[in-house]
Amino acid sequence: MSRLSTNQLTLAYGSRRIVENLNLSVPDGKITSLVGANGSGKSTILKSLARILNPQSGGVFLDGKQIHRQPTKEVAKQLAILPQNPTSPEGLTVRELISFGRYPHQRGFGSLSAEDNRMIDWALQATGMGEFHDRAVDQLSGGQRQRAWIAMALAQGTEVLLLDEPTTFLDMAHQIEVMSLLEKLNREQKRTIIMVVHDLNHAARFSQHLVALKRGTVLYEGHPEVVMTPAMLRDVFGIDADVIPDPRTGAPLCLPYGLAEGHGQAPVSVPGRTAAHREDGRLTAAAVV
């Protein structure tokens, strides 16, 4: 049984329903990418999986228990979330940022324990950020900053990581840097990772499971080689594209050519897009559950 799943999940902002009767099981120990055009419900679903957004009906289940009925600290010991474009106070060092990930394991306002410091050191090493431990977060490059935030999530000591567009606003090199880190964490530590991804070619290359959404409904789901097809790209994104094997990795590679017939000028999400998007028009400030 999947550790993280939904059952007849309906999500809404006020009277506007975004997702309705969603049944989704996140494969354990794999990287799952949520893909879809703007407004398809990707970030909304991720917020509900992270216990940030309460369902209108149905539920999200973690180890068979409704996640929204569990204490916040208990959930935070089991899954960590990295929201889109997180911010930190000016002058905060990398190590101080990562230490916030230990909050769910602390009692009261005591100092960091030996176990806390061990986990912080491990997270620094796992993300390659050890040499920057005393550097201010706001002085880091985009890729380094994102690795620091991922290290904070790792320091929580959870088996499940949720990430909302982890490569947004990063240049090509830093995108590869972050995605390769996530791939390494999954491969070496069997972390279950679920993330919202705009770049379809990144999703196909670095994921073992794709969920393609349209208007809050799962239209396609499975291994990238099964999901990434011209039919999916037409149905989900409204684009005309070819799909070929990547010459190096063998992963399906999307080559978009234009809008599919009958789709007019509707906005689409295509590989390489990195513009920020918030489906509900709001920003999420919390970095941990």
Helix content: 25-40%
Shape descriptor: globular
Helix/strand order, N-terminal first: EEEHEEHEHHHEHEHEEHHEE
What is the terminal separation in angstroms?
A: 23 Å
The largest sheet is: 6 strands, mixed
- What is the SS-derived class? alpha/beta
Spatial strand order of the main sheet: 6-7-8-3-9-10
Please characterize this protein's 3D structure.
There is one protein chain. With 289 residues, this protein is of the alpha/beta class. The chain is built from 9 helices and 12 strands. A 6-stranded mixed beta sheet has the order 6-7-8-3-9-10, with helices on both faces. The protein has a 4-stranded antiparallel beta sheet with strand order 2-1-4-5, covered by helices on one side. A two-stranded antiparallel ribbon has the order 11-12. A hairpin with a 2-residue loop joins strand 1 and strand 2 (16-26). Helix 4 (114-126) runs antiparallel to helix 5. The protein is globular and about 60 Å long. The model is unreliable at 266-289 (pLDDT under 50).
